[in-house]
Design brief:
Length: 402
């Protein structure tokens, strides 16, 4: 093989890592230089101190680069019919100018992914998700008059989360943004282009997601940080966001569940009922992927129950086995953190039925390392019926400045 041929092979197998439209700002602010690749984009894990970044989410506001999140624009005469066939909830109830959280399943009623449907304007939808879904969407579009375009690269996105987020948006010219209800969308003029603002987020707090053309991305970032100085604005990475989303009880694909189209073993996927998402299944509509299997599961009962756990002590129960009082393994922790706001050791877990009812005696087997030595503790767990973080300001309309 010649040198030229060898170089050609190297290029063939090279994995592209893109920079988001905000990279010029995020890279300059990333003092600790911690990054990872999120869907082929360079993404910050932390900027200066993940605990202080988390504190900004709960006490001021923090900005997270959302650009890598997979986005699909869905239009055409059959857009509504197609989405209603695809997902479990009734998309007709998501009015123009609103966002709906949803899931979609395979024919066996097992979750492929979760995400949000943005009904931008009449008949114009954007589906946002963790995993790339273009192949699945295209296969399911057979017979429908729809156009599906993955526009991830065409939309720059930021999450602005925390109690002072509304005040910052008003300061950059988003007049009336305080009147947006949770899951509502607003359109504002910003430096000669349209800025789309949705009252959504992954932190369980007052917050918004901002969507703009990549060419105006740096102008948006600069405006937020200029007007946000007096409101305590900070950048945040994935580590701080992870703590906030576990406190709120939000699921993450590839962490709390594995997409059914990627699992190898049949019992490793989960249904909506097994992820505590039965509220998103609407049997009132006649046909959607997995409907027959989900009806059968509803009649027969589920295999698993997804729960929030209050764990005694201060050692996070990451990847811990959960035991019953007779020392039988009854489940596994999927996510765990120490909650700075709740001042509790918290976890999300998938348990075999019938365990996971309030009052069940459960124990987490926790391993942790100190100075080259491993320790094990058995920590008592209590099932929590509510999220660990759910402040009234998240829902209050109009939103306050704080």
């Amino acid at each position: 093989m010649s040198v030229k041929e060898a170089m050609g092979c190297k290029e063939h197998f090279r994995k592209a890592v893109w920079e988001t439209p905000f990279h010029a700002r995020t890279s300059a602010l990333n003092i600790v230089n911690q990054w990872h690749a999120w869907k082929d984009y360079t993404t910050a894990d932390a900027f200066f101190d993940e605990q202080l970044e988390y504190a900004a989410i709960r006490n001021a506001c923090a900005v997270f680069d959302l650009t890598p999140m997979t986005k699909h624009l869905i239009t055409g005469p059959d857009a509504l019919a197609f989405l209603n066939r695809l997902v479990t909830r009734d998309v007709a109830k998501i009015r123009p100018g609103m966002v709906g959280y949803t899931i979609w399943c395979d024919d066996n009623g097992q979750v492929i992914d979760d995400g949000t449907i943005f009904h931008l304007r009449e008949g114009v939808y954007r589906l946002c998700s963790q995993e790339r879904q273009l192949d699945w969407l295209t296969r399911n579009a057979f017979g429908f008059d729809v156009t599906i375009v993955e526009d991830t690269h065409d939309v720059a996105g930021l999450a602005l989360q925390g109690p002072t987020s509304c005040a910052v948006l008003k300061a950059i010219g988003c007049t009336g943004v305080q009147n947006l209800k949770p899951f509502a969308i607003g359109f504002f003029q910003f430096h000669g282009t349209e800025l789309t603002v949705s009252r959504t987020g992954f932190t369980g707090d007052l917050g918004y997601e901002l969507w703009i053309e990549p060419a105006q991305a740096l102008e948006l970032w600069d405006a937020l940080f200029d007007k946000g100085k007096i409101h305590g604005i900070r950048p945040m990475g994935t580590h701080a966001l992870e703590v906030a989303r576990i406190e709120a009880g939000f699921l993450a694909a590839q962490v709390d569940f594995h997409p059914a189209d990627q699992t190898i073993m049949a019992d490793r996927s989960r249904s909506p009922f097994e992820l505590d998402l039965g509220r998103l299944v609407d049997f009132g509509k006649p046909c959607f992927n997995g409907r027959r299997a989900l009806l059968a599961e509803q009649a027969k009962g589920s295999r698993y129950r997804f729960v929030r756990l209050d764990v005694e002590g201060n050692k996070p129960a990451r990847s811990a086995y959960i035991y019953d009082k007779d020392k039988n393994v009854v489940g596994t922790v999927t996510s765990a953190e120490w909650s700075p706001s709740a001042k509790k050791n918290i976890a999300l877990a998938s348990l075999h039925m019938p365990w996971g009812r309030p009052g069940d005696e459960l124990w987490a087997e926790i391993y942790y390392q100190r100075e080259l030595k491993w320790y094990k503790v058995m920590a008592r767990c209590q099932v929590a019926e509510q999220p660990f973080w759910d402040p009234p300001r998240k829902r209050a309309t109009p939103a306050q400045d704080y």
